[in-house]
Write a structure and sequence with these properties.
The protein has one domain. It contains three helices and five strands; from the N terminus they run E-E-E-H-E-H-E-H. The chain has a five-stranded mixed beta sheet, sandwiched between helices. This is Terpene synthase.
């Protein structure tokens, strides 16, 4: 049985677990950058083939990263891409960038899984600009990206 669990939610960031038979297969980090494509983003497929005029129309980028301790199968990667492609509401002013990474020691670390220090370590591995300050995060302030 496959399932998803949202383990963290905030205005610009959501983190999910993708589970199979109650075992974590991957963490999925959905980051709403609230920015247009960066110069580095413009160099990746399919943006490298687009006209600059079309690229400039994109005002917001969602970065979706699948992070696991083992390489995801092509089937899992396709399933996750399709699921999150359907989950997010994308307009002609927004786009998504999907990436899959392997973090060899994802679960073998000093931080307890599904805690703010663990999420910060995960975000650091993804080279994200987001840093979560556990003293500033209150459960009552959390919200879903779709509620913004």
């Amino acid at each position: 049985m496959q399932s998803f669990v949202r383990v963290f939610k905030s205005r610009d960031l959501e983190i999910f677990q993708f589970l199979r038979n109650r075992n974590v297969v991957s963490y999925i980090v959905v980051e709403d950058t609230r920015k247009p494509l960066s110069d580095a983003d413009k160099k990746i497929d399919p943006f490298c083939y687009m006209d600059e005029e079309d690229i400039d129309k994109i005002l917001n980028v969602f970065k979706i990263t699948f992070a696991s301790d083992l390489e995801l199968s092509e089937e899992d990667r396709l399933f996750l891409t399709n699921f999150f492609n359907d989950l997010l509401n994308i307009t002609n002013l927004t786009t998504m960038i999907f990436k899959s990474i392997v973090v060899n020691d994802l679960f073998n670390h000093e931080f307890r899984v599904d805690t703010i220090p663990f999420f910060n370590r995960l975000l650091e591995c993804l080279k994200s600009d987001v840093y979560l300050d556990e003293h500033e995060i209150e459960d009552s302030n959390w919200m879903y990206l779709s509620q913004d």
